[in-house]
């Protein structure tokens, strides 16, 4: 077994779209030993790393909900893995954990900064950076805080992505009529297979016309993952007292001059609300969401798809592919084989 720990460092702040070769540096360091751990710390062998649009925002120095990643720091990222060394009395070797473990094969972290996980029936360890991780929690609380009612029209952009696909399925469970917006015909077909009532390709020249036709009673809830022109199209169709959930703006994260909404005055005329949220604010309620999501998963009411990239060294290019809409479902990086046990 290799005694080297592959790590990916954040090496240059990008302006506009990032170049993986300039933005990140791959380094090899010795795998930490028990002597490198302080009291309360653990060493985690990482199995899967989540790639998320939020990572682009973490590269910027603008005011945000979390401090930016520092230059030459291991790139931040949610991951799951197994404890291989421990100086924490509450966590033992062999325990599976989830946390901000970063872009590396092995991570030293304080035990209080991870969540111990035991996969539920029908679930895998990967689900804890997916449906039971930030992805699923974002979908659950972002949508349900608005209390969607049976018969509501819910529109979801980025609907074939990790969060959007779960949002649409939860909305269906709650009795809403759901319209998904995605970037290809194949993705639209997948959304219909998930149970979406309508799936629209935003690259279609007649997209605006088709969106209007699909929303004769306007949009009660628009779950926005993309921002830009699609947000404007949905503002034009917002219903009286409608709600726009600002979850993300992936179409704008790599723009040198991000575009704001042009038709925001619809919020005035329709007495509508547009509000952002950050999933960390709901951390104390995660067990409630996981209980519901587990039940729906076992009942077959929620399905998920994964897009897995093999090898940590491919994470930088994988992140760029995420912004190009390359994936359907949750994008993950397989860092280590969970079936191969470590002997440190």
Automatic annotation (TrEMBL):
Residues 69-310 form the Plant heme peroxidase family profile domain. It comes from Rhizophagus clarus. It comes from the Eukaryota. PANTHER family: ALCOHOL DEHYDROGENASE, ZINC-CONTAINING (AFU_ORTHOLOGUE AFUA_7G04530) (PTHR43205:SF42), PROSTAGLANDIN REDUCTASE (PTHR43205). SMART domains: PKS_ER. GO terms for biological process: response to oxidative stress. CDD domains: PGDH. This is Plant heme peroxidase family profile domain-containing protein. One of its GO terms (molecular function) is heme binding.
């Amino acid at each position: 077994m290799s005694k080297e720990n592959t790590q990916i460092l954040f090496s240059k702040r990008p302006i506009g779209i990032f170049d993986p070769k300039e933005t990140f540096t791959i380094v090899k360091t010795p795998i930490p030993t028990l002597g490198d751990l302080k009291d309360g710390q653990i060493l985690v062998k990482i199995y899967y790393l989540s790639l998320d649009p939020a990572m682009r925002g973490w590269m910027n120095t603008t005011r945000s909900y979390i401090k930016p990643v520092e230059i030459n720091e291991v790139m931040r990222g949610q991951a799951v893995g197994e404890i291989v060394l421990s100086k924490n009395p509450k966590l033992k070797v062999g325990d599976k954990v989830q946390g901000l473990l970063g872009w590396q094969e092995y991570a030293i972290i304080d035990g209080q900064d991870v969540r111990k996980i035991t996969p539920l029936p029908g679930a895998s360890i990967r689900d804890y950076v997916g449906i039971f991780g930030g992805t699923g929690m974002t979908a659950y609380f972002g949508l349900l805080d608005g209390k969607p009612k049976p018969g509501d029209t819910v529109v979801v952009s980025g609907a074939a992505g990790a969060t959007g696909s779960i949002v649409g399925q939860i909305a269906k469970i709650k009795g809403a009529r759901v319209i998904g917006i995605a970037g290809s015909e194949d993705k639209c077909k997948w959304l219909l297979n998930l149970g979406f009532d309508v799936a629209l390709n935003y690259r279609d020249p007649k997209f605006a016309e088709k969106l209007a036709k699909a929303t004769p009673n306007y949009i009660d809830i628009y779950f926005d993952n993309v921002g830009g022109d699609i947000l404007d199209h949905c503002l034009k169709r917002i219903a009286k007292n409608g709600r726009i959930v600002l979850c993300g703006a992936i179409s704008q994260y790599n723009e040198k001059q991000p575009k704001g909404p042009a038709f925001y005055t619809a919020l005035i005329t329709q007495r509508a609300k547009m509000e952002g949220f950050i999933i960390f604010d709901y951390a104390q309620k995660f067990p409630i969401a996981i209980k519901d999501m587990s039940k729906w998963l076992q009942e077959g009411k929620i399905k998920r798809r994964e897009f897995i990239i093999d090898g940590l060294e491919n994470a930088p290019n994988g992140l760029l592919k995420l912004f190009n809409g390359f994936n359907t479902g949750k994008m993950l990086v397989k860092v280590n084989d969970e079936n191969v046990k470590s002997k440190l």
